[in-house]
Specification:
32% of the residues lie in helices and 19% in strands. A five-stranded antiparallel sheet has the order 4-3-2-1-5. It is of the alpha+beta class.
């Protein structure tokens, strides 16, 4: 057999080797992360629940999911170990702004260049409520809706 015939097989075997190698590295990194867990650290489970580690055992972890509420989880169910700043930002809503973070306004008024006048027509409130028409206010012949008028 020639080298040209064997080349696709060699490339396929090489690609399979590289894919399994990267997957193995990811598994080892996840196992290392789980083994580095210590009580008091914040974690995110693979289901998306945030909790604090209370105890670490061989195959299981005791998590505090709410103050005074403890749950036992398998170590493999821990998706990420979070650092303290990230955990407090997500769970407690501590949004400590850093000096180098850009401040973004809550509305788009700074982007539109509109005047800051409250009397300008661009800032006027639009009433989307239904206004009663003169015809809808009272029935002409004294009949209410749903009356057939049969005698």
């Amino acid at each position: 057999m020639s080298l040209v015939t064997l080349l696709p097989f060699i490339v396929l075997i090489g690609a399979m080797f590289l894919m399994t190698r990267s997957a193995k590295k990811k598994q080892q990194a996840a196992a290392q992360m789980r083994s580095d867990m210590q009580p008091g650290t914040g974690v995110r489970t693979i289901g998306g629940m945030y909790a604090t580690v209370k105890e670490v055992h061989d195959d299981m972890v005791l998590l505090e999911v709410a103050p005074g509420v403890h749950a036992v989880y398998a170590k493999n169910s821990i998706g990420a170990v979070l650092d303290d700043d990230e955990y407090n930002r997500i769970v407690h809503g501590d949004d400590a702004l850093k000096a180098d973070d850009p401040i973004v306004p809550d509305d788009a008024s700074s982007l539109t260049g509109a005047a800051d006048d409250a009397d300008s027509p661009a800032d006027a409130k639009i009433d989307l409520g239904k206004k009663p028409d003169a015809a809808d206010a009272e029935p002409k012949d004294g009949k209410a809706d749903g009356d057939t008028g049969a005698k």
